Each structure stands twice: as C-alpha cells, then as structure tokens.
Amino acid sequence: MPEFYQYLFSGLTNGAIYAIIALGFSMLFAATDLINFAHGEFVMIGALILVTLWPVMGLPLPLAFVITVLATGILGIVFERLAIRTVKKPDPIVLVIITVGAGIFLRGVAMIIWGKTAKGAPPFSKMPPLEIGGAYLLAQSVWILGIVLATVLVMHFFYSRTLTGKAMSACAINKRAASLLGIATQRMTLLAFAVSAALGGMAGVIIAPITMNEYEMGAILGLKGFCAAMLGGLGNSWGAVVGGFALGIAEAMAVGYVSSSMKDAVAFLLLLLILYVRPTGILGGKAIARF
Amino acid sequence: MKPILRNILVYGAFIGVVAAYGLLEKSTYYLQLATFVGLNTLLAVGLNMLMGYAGQISLGHAAFYGLGAYVSGMLTVHLGWSPWATLPCALFAAGAVAYVVGLPTLRLTGYYLAMGTLGFGMIVNILFREFRRFTGGPSGLPGLPELTIGSINLSHGANALFLVWGCVIVAFFICERIVDSRMGRALRAIHYSERAAAAVGVNTASAKLAIFVFAAVIAALAGFLYAHMITFISPSTFNFLASVKLVAMVVIGGMASIWGSLLGASLLTLLPDFLHVFAEYEMIIYGLILMLVMIFFPEGLFKNLVKLYERAKNR
C-alpha cells in the first residue's frame, strides 16, 4: 500500500500542475475559440523568470512570485496585441501557425537569454516531508496543491461573482450577443489572454522547484495541459481541473506499475483515445466535434 | 498557350535545369546542398497537399519523414535487407501509421488535428530515442547501406541529385494531377467549407484521410532517400523543430501552391547555409517568419510575387 500512496502523491502533484495549465487552455478557448500552441512556453518563461528573480537575484519569494505572474500576464497581452489581433483572416490553420511560430520564437528568445543549461530552484520551504500511510508527501507538493486549489477558487469567484467575469462568460457563450449587450468583447479577449498567460506563468513558478528548468520544457507541459483540458472537455473550467488530476494520477500509476518510459506516452494515448471516443471530454462541455 | 504545351515546357525546363546543374556542378558540397533542397521540396510539396489544399495542418510531419528513414534503416542494418526491399516496407509503414493516427484526429477540426499530430510527432521522437536496441537511441543509427543499381552508386554526387530531383518531378506531376482531379476539387471544397463540401456529397472524412496518408508516404520516401544518402540517422533530424521548419517552408512558399513549395524549401535550405548567424537564432528566425508571413501574407510569398508581376504587366 505505501507505494500506492507514493504514486498517488506524485500523481496529485503533477496533476495539480497539469490542471492549472489546462485551465489556461480551457478558459482561453472558451473566451476566444482559439487554442494557443504557445501556452507551454508561458509555463517555461514563468519558471525561468522565477529562477532568475528568486534563487539568483535573491528577491523574497512572494514578491518574485507576483512579479513573475504579472510579467507573463503582460507577455500574454503583448502577444494578443501584436500577433493575434493583427490577423486579417482568423482561420484556425492561420492561428495555429501563428501561435506555433510564437512558441518557437519564445523558445529561441529563452535560449538566448537563459542559455541551454537547465537550472534548478530550491523548494519553497525547508520543511521535512510528511509521512502518510508509509509514503512521503513533499512540502513542495503541499504548496503546489494549496496554490492550485486557491487559484481555482479565485477563478470560480471571478466567473460567478464579478461583473467582468460574468461578461467574459457571456463572450464565451455568444460573442455577438455579448457585444450587442454592450460588452467590450475585444477587451475581454485581451483579458482572457492575460489571465491565461498568467496561469501558465504561475504553473511555471510552482513547478520550478521540482523540475529542471530549461528552454525546452514548455512543449511537453503544454501538450499534457492540452490533453488534460481535452479530458475534461475543452472550454469547461472544472473539467480542466478534473482532467488535470486524472491525467497526473494515470501517469503516475503507469510509471509506478508499468514502466517509467511510459510516462510521456500515457498523455498521448489518452489524447488519441479521447479524440476517438468522446471528443467532448469526460465532463461533456461545449460541443467541439463538428464533423 | 494550351495547358498541355505549357506543362511540357515547364517540366522540360525544370528537367533541363536539374540535368544541367547535375552535369556541370563539380563541387560535392554544392551537389549535396542541391540534393537537400530536393529532399525538402519533396517534404514540403507533400505537406502542402495536406495544408494548402485540404486545409488540414500537421505539426508532426517530421515523424513520417523519420519513420521512412528508421524503418528502412533498422531493416537494412539489423536484418541485412537490401534498401530496395525495405522501400515498400517504409512507405507502407508510414502510410499505415498515418491511417491509424488520422482516423480519429481527422474527424475533428483544425486545432485537434494540429494538437494530435504534434503529440504524435513527439511520441515518435521519444520512441526513436528510447528503443535503443533497435534505433541506436539518442546517438543514432550508423552504417546504413548506400543505394546502388549494379555498380552505379546512387547515394553520392550527381547521381543522388538526379535520384532525389527525379522523385521531386514525379511527385510534382502526381500532385498537379491530384489537384486537377475530382479529389483535388473535393479537397479545395473542404478547405473552403467542410460543411458545404459534405452537403454536396463529398465524403470529407475519407478525402482528408487519403491526402493525409499521401503526404505521409511522400515524407517517408524523403526519409528513405535521406537515410541511405547520409547512411546515418539520429532522432534530432526528425524532432518538433523539423516539423515546424516544414510548416514554415509551406507557409513561405504559399499554401495551395505546388511550385511555391519549391521556393519555400529552397529559401529555407539555402539561407541557413549563407547566413551563419542562423544557427544561434534559428528558432527566433523561424518563429518570426511564421508569424510575419501569416499576418501580412497569409497566401504566401509565391502568390504575392505572382500578383506583383501581374500588376506590373497590366500597367
């Protein structure tokens, strides 16, 4: 049983990170009908900015955290203004190529700024791991789970209690109707990009201590986040969270009981399975299979 | 001019240029560079059929390129088969994999195919790296046999150039036939509106799948040629960045433009050779190219050049 708990904890930790990346995909898709292929790169940039600000420059952690999230959010705004709003013909294929281009561009910039060597970060707090049922739960995992749960609650509050959040939901349901009701839909798109990128940056911040941070880490994280978002039903925020944890746990169990080389294959097999069997995800959500 | 006469002239000129270059150029370096332009053109034209005509994107196209190279490489190195026997196996393997991957993903719209092919490309690359016993792992698979017919070696110099460009010319011809056929019209209809195409009786799913398999087989052919020309293959040749480069070639040349693929592939193969700063800033440059071309010239440079020419002529 202890190893089961050990796999479960590892799955929950990774799952929380996938959940927050998936949330970024999902909320942006809901608001703009767009899938941002550069989303994983925001995670990478977030992680590298944190590594620079906190262990290297010695800023206090909370301050570094806030600056990183704000910086990635601003990067999201710049991205929308320069590369998305300027598109004359917003076909999916055009937007896919543009966001892929942006992703490669950000990766190239990160390689120039931070170099090719991977950088580590210490855990947020130097507490010993908790022992539960014979398995160990790292303090960093507790931080990750706590921050992700807090973020999900804040997002829920934002969507259900604030006027801006409700306006954004209105855009997600029907952009033209929202615009007729006087909602500035362009500004909502911009805000959606900012929040989505900031969520990516936050995922980067919390993952930094438990991974090796380098310019190429974004691609696979982005893919897994997308897989989690698909699992939960793209455009469905709660679905993204559930999908993230489901993917994290499935991955950890596959690594534990089958083989560690299965880790990255799990996400892809699940993704194909979902696309094949139930493209609307486990929790239903917006209809996406049009043909 | 009658279209058939025009075609004879265009292909005649094309064959003439390739033949003249192959016979006159003596530097092995430039011969190899020109052969690489041919390989990339082959890859780009296949991808362009999928992206440009059918409007379906593949972000994992290098995986099919790699499958062609690795299937043939593993069969020749480990089992000692002749490359000519492995060629059908490599093409069939890529086509079959494309069929299986395309079946679920092509039923969905643009984004899902893009994400599905991206994930597929990454997994294939991981497999190349992880199955060390067969693929040689990250350090690659050396010692592939060269292509020969009798005593003629087709893997070096002008012979390799003729072989690769011969494939390019045949591929161009086939692609032009496809574009002008019922299939080509169906693909363009799908690109314009999948729903409308389905409404007038196009079997959209099978048309998309067919062109996806076609593009994969062309890529596998390029992979086969590459593998036996270089006689060494490693996973990094077929990674995500390689797939993005192929997309960039198609995008620069212009989507739905067969001859544009030639321009895109030539530019992106020759430029890094002339500009040595390219290596360090490679990703930044590719990223910028993709974004700028899509924002300012969504139809590609080739079509814009043609338009400029026609405007100048009419003046």
Shape of chain B: globular
Strand residue content of chain B: under 5%
Mean pLDDT reading of chain B: 88
Q: In CATH terms, what is the architecture of chain A?
A: Orthogonal Bundle
Which regions of chain A are unreliable across 5 or more consecutive residues at pLDDT < 50? 285-291
Helicity range of the residues of chain B?
Answer: over 70%
Give helix and strand order of chain A, one letter per element, not per position: HHHHEEHHHHHHH
Outline of chain A, from the CA principal axes? Answer: globular
CA(first)-CA(last) distance of chain B? 22 Å
Largest sheet of chain A: 2 strands, antiparallel
Count of DSSP helices of chain B? 14
What's the structural domain tally of chain B?
1
Q: Determine Rg of chain B (CA atoms, Å).
A: 19 Å
**Radius of gyration of chain A from CA coordinates:** 19 Å
Instruction: Kindly provide the name of the CATH class of chain A.
Output: Mainly Alpha
- What is the first-to-last residue Cα distance of chain A? 45 Å
- How does the major sheet of chain B shape up? 2 strands, antiparallel
* Sequence stretches where pLDDT stays below 50 over 5 or more residues of chain B: none
Describe what you observe in this structure.
The complex is a heterodimer of chains A (291) and B (315). Chain A has one domain: ABC transporter involved in vitamin B12 uptake, BtuC. Helix content of chain A is 72%, strand content 2%. Chain A has helices at 2-32, 39-56, 61-84, 92-114, 139-161, 163-173, 175-180, 185-207, 218-232, 237-257, 263-277, and strands at residues 130-132, 135-137. In chain A, helix 1 packs antiparallel against helix 10. The radius of gyration of chain A is 19 Å and the shape is globular. Chain B has 14 helices and four strands. The two termini of chain B are 22 Å apart. Chain B has 315 residues and is mainly alpha-helical. Chain B has one domain. Chain B has a two-stranded antiparallel ribbon with strand order 1-4. Chain B has a two-stranded antiparallel ribbon with strand order 2-3.
